Backbone:
C-alpha cells in the first residue's frame, strides 16, 4: 500500500507543477508585447462584414 501512496503523491506534485508551468508559458505567450498586433487584428475579425 505504501507504493500506491508514494506514486499518488508523486503524480499529484509533478502534475500540479507541470500544469503551473504550462499556465505560466501560456500567460507569457498571451501577454507578449510582440503578439499584441496579431491579437488585436484577430479580435476585430467578428466585427468585419463579409
Residues:
Amino acid at each position: 500500500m505504501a507504493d500506491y501512496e508514494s506514486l499518488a503523491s508523486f503524480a499529484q506534485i509533478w502534475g500540479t507543477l507541470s500544469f503551473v508551468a504550462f499556465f505560466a508559458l501560456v500567460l507569457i505567450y498571451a501577454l507578449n508585447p510582440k503578439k499584441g498586433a496579431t491579437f488585436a487584428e484577430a479580435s476585430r475579425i467578428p466585427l468585419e462584414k463579409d
Summary: The chain has a mean pLDDT of 91. The helical segments are 2-30, 36-43.
